[in-house]
Amino acid sequence: MPVSLHDIQQASELLNGNIVRTPLVPASRLSVLLGAEVYLKLENMQFTGSFKDRGSFVKLSSLTEKERKAGVIAMSAGNHAQGVAFHAQRMGVPATIVMPITAPFTKVERTKAFGARVEQYGVTLDESKEVADRLQVEGGLTFVHPFDDEKVVAGQGTIGLEILEDMPDVEDVVVPIGGGGIISGIATAMKALKPDVRMTGAQCSFFPSMYQAMSGLDGPMGGQTLADGIAVKNPGGITKEIVSRLVDHIEIVEEHLIELAILRLAEEARVISEGAGASGLAAMLKDPAPFKGRKVVVVICGGNIDTQLYANVLRRGLIADQRIVRLRVSILDIPGVLSKMAAIIGENRGNIIDVAHQRYLSDIPAKNAELDITIETPNSNAINDIRAALNNAGFPNRRLRDQMAKDLIAGEQH
């Protein structure tokens, strides 16, 4: 076997005092929502905001003095970049990181802040690797792979040891999958110590590379995903072998579920997660049935998300939940009508956040007007009460859907 329980235990000793021993916290409201006993392993609380701190430190600690002096190189969408740059800076090792041009601004800037030389190339990690390979040869650098490396996998596997220390009776562990490093490490540790634990991987629908490798499929791949941290076209050879032996199921999750998972983590657990980090919860939201009544640990593998993107995702989630709704309401254009309509909305638990008054549209009678009203509601049922009350009071109305989302997101970006 390429990585053993002994390797992971040694990595755990090495990491002691050098990374954050992250908490495993109960998520009571998510438990009610999903019908399972849900716990969150908060790797977003690592110093650089993701689990990559673990494998990066273990790999860098294995370098010879000659290799440390020459320096290291890595390709990464952001989290591995920060992990390598952070520990390289601590150890006095020069680091070069190649990142795709699509890497979030936050991740790029934080990587530079750790003293790494950053080169941006390509749209995906696979394209970034072309440049990383060339620079490695030119500079005689040691390549620190984000997932297909025994030392890296062993480092990530220490998460599994910590989960079992904190919850020996865990029944399910749900882990995001990109190249497979984190799930390979966790599965190796957990299956060695608790063979009956069920391992589920979550992979984004644009990059189902591990799922296809395990299923013998060769479908289309690529696209702009919120889960950039797991946007990997080619999983590793080491990780494919481990996943094939130890992972019980891989769930493919679509973008809207990843967005919803980010919203649910924020509202129900007060946890900030990036897209990749929320993918495990997205898998449970997609199909909660297999987890009903079981003790489930969801690994939140990272929390590095741009603030603007995070705001947009939360707003889009509220729109999808029908807690922000835009109505087009027909009224008689006479004094007092607007206040009457606003009172009806307030009485039915709605809060008006925007009003556009249309008097001069050609297809509206001269004595009438139309109002486009954006309303916050406590839940999706409230908007039905508001619409019914408006209709009963003589204010015909209809929902405005897609354009509202576009307008609200555009407004936040200016």
Kindly describe this structure.
- With 414 residues, the chain is α/β, with parallel strands linked by helices.
- The chain has 3 domains: 5-51 and 149-316, Rossmann fold; 62-143, 3-Layer(aba) Sandwich (Rossmann fold); 322-412, Alpha-Beta Plaits.
- Helices cover 47% and strands 19% of the residues.
- The chain contains 17 helices and 14 strands.
- It has helices spanning 5-15, 28-34, 52-61, 65-70, 79-91, 105-113, 125-139, 150-166, 181-193, 209-215, 237-246, 255-269, 275-286, 307-320, 337-347, 380-392, 402-412; strands spanning 24-26, 37-42, 72-75, 95-99, 117-120, 142-143, 172-176, 198-204, 249-253, 295-300, 324-332, 351-358, 368-376, 397-400.
- The strands form 3 sheets. A 6-stranded mixed sheet has the order 1-2-10-7-8-9, with helices on both faces. A 4-stranded parallel sheet has the order 5-4-3-6, sandwiched between helices. The chain has a 4-stranded antiparallel sheet with strand order 12-13-11-14.
- Helix 6 links the parallel strand 4 (95-99) and strand 5 (117-120).
- The chain starts with a helix and ends with a helix.
